Amino acid sequence: MSEEQIKNSRTEHSRSLERQFNERIERDEKIEPKDWMPEKYRKTHIRQISQHAHSEIVGMLPEGNWITRAPSLRRKVALLAKVQDEAGHGLYLYSACETLGISRDELYEQLHTGKAKYSSIFNYPALTWADMGAIGWLVDGAAIINQVPLCNTSYGPYARAMIRVCKEESFHQRQGFEIMLKLANGTQEQKEMAQDALNRWWWPSLMMLGPTDDKSVHTEQSMKWKLKRKTNDELRQQFIDQTVPQADVLGLTIPDPDLKWNEERKSYDFGKIDWDEFWQVVKGHGPMNKERMKARVGAWERGEWVRDAAMAHAEKKQARKEKQAV
Ligand SMILES: [Fe+2]
Ligand SMILES: [Fe+2]
């Protein structure tokens, strides 16, 4: 065979692999770590799953900050459980990501050097106890909308991780809503605190569902691979339609004068989102970007002796085993 013929047959082979791969996705079959996959599919999944894992881990910071100041033992237990859940979500997702051939160290390195992104919402500060309510209700609420379709995503390890994650997210959303309900029915001051938290978290929660479809560069390919089942705008509309009646139950006002029920569309029309603010935060200029990174890098550095000790212990154990085998 000439060089040209070898090249052609290789191209033909990879085309046929890609065809089979697309057919499997079409049939809703799960793709597993050892299966053949296009390089772009692998890279896109590393990006998305790691971004998701980083968001879970950085997402612990605004709430972790309030654990010691929770107003009662019951609230403290619930908040502590929630923050621990987020750590667990991060760990499942890092593990799922590692099955695509990237190491945990590389993933952390990408986060710590600012190369990897995480959800923009965690770059806002949690100023009062009511923020614990608003974060659970709105941020975890938006996360559920985003994540439920991912339980059916095409990459097996990601889809399976999401099933458990989603169950826990619904507890997070309810504990947040319950905090809001208590405050909204409390003293005038507590009600104002709840309203203030809603005012500050509403718009960032809408932004959290990602840029509008015409500005979202990855949507089309991700829809084809069933990595995404709904577009950002569809998810955002679903979140708004679901959340407005909940605000009514709380007796709080959504901070959007243009919010109005559209009888024809059977959905809410809503006001303009400040996308400049979104892009500023994504680029690292949000109110808390620097603090969040400092906290993560600090935790990594302070944990060095634990990692070293664990490695030394593992090596000793291995050496002992080898000695016994001889
Ligand atoms: Fe989570
Ligand atoms: Fe959560």
Automatic annotation (TrEMBL):
UniProt record, GO biological process: phenylacetate catabolic process
GO molecular function: phenylacetyl-CoA 1,2-epoxidase activity
Region Disordered, annotated ranges: 1-26
Entries under InterPro entries matching the protein: Aromatic_CoA_ox/epox, PaaA, PaaA_PaaC
Cellular component annotations (GO), alphabetically ordered: cytosol
Keywords: Oxidoreductase
Highest taxon listed in the record's lineage: Bacteria
The EC number(s) this enzyme carries: 1.14.13.149
Name of protein: 1,2-phenylacetyl-CoA epoxidase subunit A
Biological classification of the source: Bacteria, Pseudomonadati, Bacteroidota, Flavobacteriia, Flavobacteriales
Gene, per the UniProt record: paaA
